[in-house]
Amino acid sequence: LDQLADKLSEDRVRRVILPMILGETGQVHRDDEQYCMDLGLIRLEQTGMEIANDIYREIIPRELTESRQYDFLSRFQPRWLSDDGSIDAVVMLGMFQEFWRENSAIWASHIAGYQEAAPHLVTQAFLQRVVNGQGSILREYALGRGRTDLMLLWPYQAENAPDGARQEQKIVIELKIYRTERQLERVLAQGLGQTAAYARACGTTEAHLLLFDRTGGAGAAGAAGMGGADGPIDPEDLPPAIPPQRHEHEGVAITVWRM
């Protein structure tokens, strides 16, 4: 773990880990894969290459965004907490949507070699601020998955719980990217099916699908290069945020966010 930051900056490690974070299929050199396996970073499963263990699934995204983590600690107050101690996921993700639109270019500039994965890494950094030692995040990402699956686990004490038992809230968050407007409809359809399946597998009805615009158009601040490393974008320079939309897919209610 002490050498992880140095290893992640190596080209032959980045060429393997970056497509894993993105969930994409790519032409990964066998020698690079073997090198990462020898380091213990990845392993070969029946479904293909994946991050070796849960510890690395958590540590790798945190290591890549460590230089900016303090921003989340100082910027966000937990306004997403409801009176009963549970998380209001709509408030939480609304705050993140606003932050992403104004600051994505800043964060991407601080993720050397992994800028393409900024949506995935910044989302996980934000959720790490949300749990802040009280909850946990389960992460699923690997080569060829086509998305990143996250589940936020949040224990809380509900006043009406029988015998004062603690409750555990499960919030499923699926991340997908579209790079052209023509892809959007297909990516949305795929994402709804994948999110519904993941929510059912996790046994929760709280499901959210985040669609990141990487087209380079007016609505894609991070991809278009608006703003920069020196400061956030003025909200008045951005097009209006697209409100979250509620979808029903195979009996699962899913809130879709355009980022």
Please characterize this protein's 3D structure.
This protein is an alpha/beta fold. The chain has one domain (68-258). The protein contains nine helices and eight strands. The chain has helices spanning 4-8, 11-22, 30-39, 54-64, 69-75, 89-108, 118-131, 181-202, 221-224; strands spanning 42-45, 48-51, 136-140, 148-156, 167-178, 206-213, 245-249, 252-258. It has a six-stranded mixed beta sheet, with helices on both faces. It has a two-stranded antiparallel ribbon with strand order 1-2. Strand 5 (167-178), helix 8 (181-202) and strand 6 (206-213) form a beta-alpha-beta unit. Helix 2 (11-22) crosses helix 3 and helix 6 packs across helix 7 (118-131). The radius of gyration is 18 Å and the shape is globular. It starts with a helix and ends with a strand. 34% of the residues are buried. Mean pLDDT is 87; it is low at 221-227.
Tell me the structural class: alpha/beta
Domains, number: 1
Please tell me what the overall shape is. Answer: globular
State the share of residues found in helices, binned by percent: 40-55%
Runs in which pLDDT lies below 50 for 5 or more consecutive residues are 221-227
Compose a concise summary of this entry.
With 259 residues, the protein is α/β, with parallel strands linked by helices.
How are the secondary structure elements laid out?
Layout: H1 4-8, H2 11-22, H3 30-39, E1 42-45, E2 48-51, H4 54-64, H5 69-75, H6 89-108, H7 118-131, E3 136-140, E4 148-156, E5 167-178, H8 181-202, E6 206-213, H9 221-224, E7 245-249, E8 252-258
Parallel strand pairs: 5-6, 6-8
Antiparallel strand pairs: 1-2, 3-4, 4-5, 7-8
